Amino acid sequence: MISLKCSFIKKCVLPVFLGVAFNAFAEVIEVTDIAGRKVSVDPDKIQNIVLGEGRLAYTLALLDKKNPLARVVGWKDDLIQYDPDAYRKYLNAFPEIAKIENLGSPYTGDYSLEKIITLNTDLFILNLGNLLKAQESGLLTKLDKVGIKVVFVDFRQRPTQNTVPSLLMLGKVLGREKEANAFIDYYVEQMRSVNSVVLTKTPEERPMVFIEQAAGYNPDKCCNTFGAANLGRLVDEAGGINWGSRKIPGFSGKVNPEVIFTDKIDYIIGTGANWSEANPNTAAVLLGYEATPALAQTRLKALADRKGWSELDAVKSKHFYSMYHQFYNSPYHFIALQTFAKWFYPEDFKDLDPEAKFVELHDKFLPIDYSGVFWQKLD
C-alpha cells in the first residue's frame, strides 16, 4: 500500500498516476465515419490495413508520403486492372507492394474472411457507395465478430461534401492528422479558386454539359452518364449545367444516345483511362501517367467520328473533351473542377493553370512524380 504521509507526495506522485490513466484512456479514440457509424480505434495499433478498393491508394498517398502502402496487406486489384499506369508508378517507387494480397471484391460469396484474419487485419477501409452491399453480404457483421475495425470514406458519391470529413477521419484513425490537415488546407484553397468566380454566373450564362462515363470503354455501347453526383456534381460546381443532374435521379444511369442528338448540349466530356490491359478492345482515350498527347488526340478524334457525332454542335465547336476517369474516386478531383471551369469560362480563368496545380500537388503531397496526360481537348 502507498502511504501519502506528506503534502508533497500528492503533488509529485498523483500526477504520475493520473498521467498514466490519461494516456491509457487516450489510446482509444472514437470517430464517426462517412456512413455515420461510430467506430472506436487505437491509432497506434493500426498496423495491417485492407482496402475494399485498390484505388483508395490515391488517398493513403496523401497521408504518408514516405511509404503510403506500408501498412496495406490486402486489396481489390482495381488499381492494377483499371489504372495500371498509376500502379506501375507506385510499384517502381515501392517494389514491396507487389506482395499485397489480391483479395477480390469484398461483397462476393467467395470472399475469404479466413484470409483477412490470417493477414492480422486491424482496419478495413470501404467506400460509402458500397455500404448496402457490405450490409447485405454480411461483411460488416462478420468483421465485427472477429474484432476487425471498419470505416467508410467517400470521394465518389458526394465528393464536394465528403472529401474533407473523410480525410479528417482517416487522419485520426491512422495517426496522420498533421498530413490530413495540410492537404485539406490546400484542397479548400483550390476548390475556392473556382467557386468564388462561378457564383457570379447566371443560369443563362452556364453551358449545358453532357458527361459520357467511360466513353468508348465498350466500343459499341453508349451511353452512361452521371447524375447530380461525382463528376456531374463537379460540372455544376464548375459553372456548367450537368445534363444528368436534371435527368438522372441517382448516382449514374444509362441513357439513349438519341438525347445527345436531340437535346441542346454545348459541351461533351468523356472520361478515359488506361483500360487497354483490362479490355484490349477498348476505344477509350487512354489517359494517365503513361499517356501521350498524340495518342490521346487520335483516340479522342475517333470518338468524335462515331456515327452522327461529327454533326453535333459540341463537336463542331471543338467543345469535345476527355477527362481522366480516376478523378471520379480521388481527393484530387479539384483538378477536374479547375479544368472544367477553364473550359467553360476561358477568359475568367485565363490565369488558372490546372496542370501546374497537378504538378504542384505531386511535388507537395505525393511520393510519385507527375507525368503523362490527364485531359484532352479535340483539336
TrEMBL record:
SUPFAM superfamilies documented for this protein: Helical backbone' metal receptor
InterPro entries in UniProt: ABC_Transporter_SBP, ABC_transptr_periplasmic_BD
Fe/B12 periplasmic-binding domain segment(s): 48-352
Residues in the signal sequence: 1-26
Short name of one Pfam family: Peripla_BP_2
Protein's name in the database: ABC transporter substrate-binding protein
Organism listed in the record: Marinomonas phaeophyticola
Record's keyword annotation contains Signal: yes
Keyword annotations: Signal
Source domain of life: Bacteria
Keyword ATP-binding: no
